[in-house]
Amino acid sequence: MAEAFIVGAFEHPTRKATDKSVGQLHAESALGALADAGLSLSDVDGYFWSGVMPNLGIVSLSDYMNLKLRYFDSSDVGGASPIVHVSHAVEAIRKGKCDVALVTLAGRPRSEGQATGTGARAGNALQPDSPWESSFGPVTSNVYGMCAMRHMHDYGTTSEQLAWVKVAASHHAQHNPAALLRDVVTVEEVVNSPIVSDPLHRLDCCVITDGGGALVLAREEIARKLSRPLVRPIGMGEAIMGQDGGRIDLTVSAGSRSAPVAFEQAGLARTDIKYASIYDSFTITVVIEVEDLGFCAKGAGGRFVADGNLISGVGKLPWNTDGGGLCNNHPANRGGMTKIIEAVRQLRGEAHPAVQVRHCDLALAHGTGGLLGARHSAATLIMERV
Amino acid sequence: MADARIIPAPNQNPETEPYYRAFGEGRFLVPVCLACGKAHWYPRFFCPYCGGKTEPRESRGEGTIYSYSIMRRVERPFALAYVELAEGPRMMTNLVDCDFDALAIGQKVRLAFKPAADGTAMPCFTPVPGER
Ligand SMILES: [Zn+2]
Q: Tell me, what's the pLDDT at A60?
């Protein structure tokens, strides 16, 4: 069986792209990742993409970049999609379905003035849940707000504990020149920022940015001829979780199903992980995910993230050292791509020296997509430096 | 209390029609499985637990707040919630005719139909006075 490696990674430097098209952001990201790998568009025979581009978006983008494909996948599960795409690309390469796989993500919600967290959504009439929910005004901030309210009720989690997630992100973002928000913030500043939807404050919410990113994976024979450090995916899990016919538990995410699969495949314990990228759409997202990933017991997430435990060089679990979605970048309203890219930087030893984890040979990238408090996806990816 | 938010008209389809028609007549229906007896939400023609046929049954519309969140960053703040029905399922809804700052998880609520923009009766909930 052919092995698959991540050989190229590129985060688009823009955070606001009024002067660029969505296609252009995809192509610039793709070219950036291919240049990083030492490959070109003509080497790509597998393409993995999804996004807000209905009517055969992957066909359109493939033609735009003039890709000659023998394998493609546009599974769309929201923010976790790029992590799912890497998993699917690995499977495709292992099965010989393609040799060089490109994964892209791009969008410009900021230039388009999208109020991602608070703006009313019409709801897609074809989705069976829409007639029962859209009218009640679920958006991201109030649905994640309900998760936080219930987590606080069941486990005594506090706003101060949630705030530590943002504080950790800001400590890392100060070292990232490309980050949208580079100021270090305090717990007090987070809990004193205006409430968006109870109990989430403005600083509990991720940023809205334009931009994108891309990854290139290649079959072993090709990967070993390239000059960049090799990163190998060794554990992959994915899951979808919904309301269970009305028996929803707002404190549990699909990560509780994706993570055990990934860890078993990798043959690793939680304590083996040196660095973790964990999707931070909101601070509460991270608290629930660290529990479901098994880094602490269910209900202990608030205590786990507090007191700087996620800050590189300070805490036990160095996390989102680029500043994450809370401070650095959240292109296309989907956090999965930047999560993998920072984990790759850490494994290559190319994170900012102030946040680089020493001897970082095992890392994890985890994301969710959709609405944690309604129906959502999760994907876990464990990687090793070869 | 600020002006109540205008509830947008729901999308409807042949599967939702019997429910919304009953709501318009002041009757709240919850689907119950004829095979396993379990109630579920949101309504489907089949049981999501066993695949059995379901029947809409009239409900008294009683429940408790499972969770809620007040959206503040809009012109007319509103309370999104999951209400746990006495029949078992937790349903997404709005909490209405109440002091948002006095709401609490576990509080008893009862059904209160509210008209959407097009007049459709929407199953919302309101706290039961004197109950916490
Ligand atoms: Zn049944």
A: 95
Indicate yes or no: CB of A245 within 8 angstroms of CB of B15.
no
Q: What is the pLDDT along chain A (386 residues), one digit of tens a residue?
A: 789 999 999 999 999 999 999 999 999 999 999 999 999 999 999 999 999 777 789 999 999 999 999 999 999 999 999 999 999 999 999 999 999 999 999 999 999 998 878 887 777 888 999 999 999 999 999 999 999 999 999 999 999 999 999 999 999 999 999 999 999 999 999 999 999 999 999 999 999 999 999 999 999 999 999 999 999 999 999 999 999 999 999 999 999 999 999 999 999 999 999 999 999 999 999 999 999 999 999 999 999 999 999 999 999 999 999 999 999 999 999 999 999 999 999 999 999 999 999 999 999 999 999 999 999 999 999 999 99
**pTM metric for this prediction:** 0.97
Architecture of the domain defined by A4-112+210-223: 3-Layer(aba) Sandwich (3.40)
SS3 A126: coil
User: What residues does A10 pair with on adjacent strands?
Assistant: A214
Under 8 Å CB pairs connecting chains A and B tally to: 134
Q: How far is CA A177 from the centre of its chain?
A: 20
A259 min Cα distance to partner chain B (Å): 25
First to last CA, chain B: 20
Q: Which CATH number fits the domain A137-207+233-385, given the four candidates 2.40.50.140, 3.90.420.10, 3.90.550.10, 3.40.47.10?
A: 3.40.47.10
Q: Is A28 exposed, middle or buried (0-12, 13-18, 19+ CB in 10 A)?
A: buried
A248 touches chain B (CB under 8 A): yes
Mutation to test the A interface, candidates B30, B64, B73, most A Cβ within 10 Å: B73
Cα separation, A325 vs A79, whole angstroms: 11
H/E stretch holding B124 reads strand B121-127
Residues in chain A closer than 8 A to B116 (CB atoms): 135
Could you tell me if the ipTM is greater than 0.95?
yes
Q: Do A134 and B8 touch (CB under 8 A)?
A: yes
Specify whether the CB–CB gap between A344 and A382 falls below 8 A: no
Ligand 1 center from residue A238 Cα (angstroms):
27
Residue indicated by tokens 């554990």: A235
Write the class of the CATH domain B17-127: mainly beta
Give the CA distances from residue A204 to residues A193, B30, B92, in Å, rounded to whole numbers and listed in that order: 9, 36, 23
> Which sequence spans correspond to the domains of chain B?
17-127
Beta bridge partners of A200: A197
Contacts of A373 in chain B (CB under 8 A): 67, 82
